[in-house]
Specification:
The chain contains 17 helices and 15 strands. The protein is α+β, with helices and mostly antiparallel strands. The chain has a 5-stranded antiparallel β-sheet with strand order 1-10-4-8-7. The chain has a 5-stranded antiparallel β-sheet with strand order 2-3-9-5-6. The protein is rod-shaped.
Length: 562
């Protein structure tokens, strides 16, 4: 438990540092997802009849200090700081910004010579401009004059995070490097997920553990979420509305969270979950699924309200996770430390994302994509945890099989002599191929033996007889104690045990208190392929035993099975 908590805290701190530290403080290459030079912006609300040229000439009314989120939803003008660069054929420039909930975006490129180039897109048009990382990119027209500023008119902005977020101006080379970096990142993630999914589904076909299916569902949902959040969906379906893509993205994130809780439910031992815990988990999974589908269906009616409710539902995901951890700790689960390691990153990233959504943390490209990275780590570590879980289950199964084998053997043996009991003897005997020889040995006047040396002494006599039978029986023979002082020896007819030799060995064997003990033997030959033949063979041997007793005991008689 202690090492699980330490690992959980360590990973959480490391993830927080990675996501919150400014880009400038990170090693080169970390900012590949946010290529280019960042541009500060100012904002003002749009009014009917506004003209781009007039807005560009008169910047009065633009607010450069108030966070954009505080303006609420609606239509806006957003203008950048001076760019001061020229888009050349050898060094073309691109305007980049994050994909947001926007109905219509018009970008006016203002040049120092007074010219204005305009590009306008609705939600479907924005999809066609999306690059990997869900970044909208505009190619800035190449003119002789340098670019003065970038002026966006955004209509139908939900302004959940900003009207224009993380605007940048980047060269083609920088954009290409960013796309290449994101391609490598998402390809590695996709390959990891496919490998984990294939491996665990292959195991499931053999082992059939529930947690393997839950894990496969979680990884599948995660891959679908990554497909929509990365912008790959926009490349695969360029005619889809960007708002629809975002709605699908939100829904799939909730489905991923729900499947993750289901995986946690199936991963721990059953004794961890009481009735209330099971009910809490069912409610949490149902709420997450309903919230995801509800957002996808109804968010256009009230995006801001839907987003707020979505965030709080996402926060509520922590409740069942905390409850599971506490219950696992109380019930001393063997897998709690594994769960803590695997879930440290998702819990930390989810908490930080919520804080960012509430404006309590600054925006970060890596924080915005932290769910994907954290869940990738969780998927990998959970697969390792599954391997460990299967290993323990295999050990438990092997121990149970060994115990079952021992119990079965004990159930088949006579506890006094260690020979087969009657039930086990019949189970092994009936069905043997080929002719068989059955010897039934009964100790003579055994009641007198018990009366003379006591029952303990009588038991020792029985054990001595059992040892004598073992020394004479062939390797394939069956020996059993089928009654109080009655024994049976069955062997193949071509490996017979001579009854007179057995009687002689018994006479020569030293018995407790040097007591003289004799026996009578009845033997018979015949097949034993089925129960009818067994009964016939047994009747013949039993009759031969009766004849030996009648003839004076301490002798053997032989008969043929009818």
């Amino acid at each position: 438990m202690t090492r699980g908590i330490i690992t959980l805290l360590g990973l959480a701190v490391a993830l927080a540092a990675m996501l919150v530290f400014p880009v400038e403080a990170r090693p080169p290459g970390w900012s590949a997802g946010t290529a280019g030079r960042p541009l500060s912006t100012c904002i003002r609300r749009a009014a009917p009849g506004d003209d781009a040229r007039a807005i560009a000439r008169d910047l009065t009314g633009f607010d450069c200090t108030t966070p954009q989120q505080q303006f609420g939803s609606g239509n806006f003008w957003v203008i950048s700081e001076p760019v001061g660069e020229r888009s050349r054929s050898r060094r073309p420039l691109n305007a980049r910004m994050l994909s947001l909930w926007q109905g219509q975006v018009t970008l006016h490129v203002l040049y120092t010579d007074g010219r204005i180039e305009t590009m306008s897109d609705d939600a479907v048009g924005l999809t066609k401009r999306i690059q990997l990382g869900a970044i909208v990119e505009y190619t800035i027209p190449r003119l002789r004059a340098p670019v003065d500023r970038l002026l966006w008119k955004v209509e139908g902005s939900s302004n959940l995070y900003a009207v224009v977020r993380n605007p940048r101006v980047a060269t083609d080379a920088e954009s290409n490097r960013a796309n290449l970096f994101m391609t490598a990142l998402y390809s590695a993630f996709g390959g990891l997920c496919i490998a984990l999914l294939t491996y665990n589904l292959a195991l499931w076909t053999t082992l059939r553990y529930r947690f393997q299916l839950a894990y496969a569902a979680m990884v599948t949902a995660l891959m679908a979420y990554a497909f929509t959040s990365s912008g790959a969906l926009a490349w695969a379906m360029p005619d889809i509305s960007n708002i629809v893509r975002l709605r699908l993205n939100y829904m799939l994130l909730m489905l991923t969270a729900a499947s993750a809780i289901w995986f946690a439910r199936t991963f721990f031992e059953e004794h961890v979950f009481g009735p209330r815990m099971r009910m809490l988990i069912r409610i949490s999974i149902g709420t997450l699924i309903a919230a995801g589908i509800g957002f996808a269906l109804f968010a256009p009616l009230a995006p801001n309200l839907a987003h707020t409710m979505y965030n709080w539902v996402f926060v509520s995901m922590l409740l069942p996770i905390v409850a599971i951890v506490v219950s696992a700790w109380r019930h001393r689960s063997n897998f709690l430390w594994l769960f803590g390691i695997a879930w440290a990153a998702p819990i930390a990233s989810g908490s930080l994302r919520v804080l960012s959504s509430l404006g309590l943390l600054p925006w970060s490209f890596w924080l915005d994509n932290s769910t994907l990275l954290a869940m990738a780590a969780e998927a990998l570590l959970s697969s390792i945890a599954i391997t460990y879980r299967i290993r323990l289950l295999s050990r438990e199964r092997d121990a149970a099989l060994a115990a079952e084998t021992v119990a079965r053997r004990l159930a088949d043996l006579d506890p006094l002599t260690g020979l087969l009991n009657r039930r086990a003897f019949l189970g092994h005997a009936i069905g043997r191929s080929g002719p068989q020889t059955l010897l039934i040995l009964d100790l003579d006047r055994f009641k007198q033996v018990n009366d003379t040396i006591g029952h303990d002494g009588g038991d020792e006599v029985l054990r001595t007889v059992a040892r004598t039978l073992r020394t004479l029986a062939p390797e394939t023979g069956l020996i059993a104690r089928i009654g109080g002082e009655e024994f049976a020896l069955l062997c193949h007819a071509d490996q017979p045990v001579d009854p007179d030799t057995l009687l002689a060995r018994l006479r020569a064997t030293r018995m407790p208190y040097d007591l003289r003990v004799t026996a009578s033997i009845g033997s018979a030959h015949g097949p034993i392929a089925n129960e009818r033949e067994w009964k016939a063979l047994y009747r013949a041997a039993d009759q031969a035993l009766f004849d030996a007793k009648s003839a004076g005991r301490d002798r053997a008689k032989t008969a043929l099975a009818a």
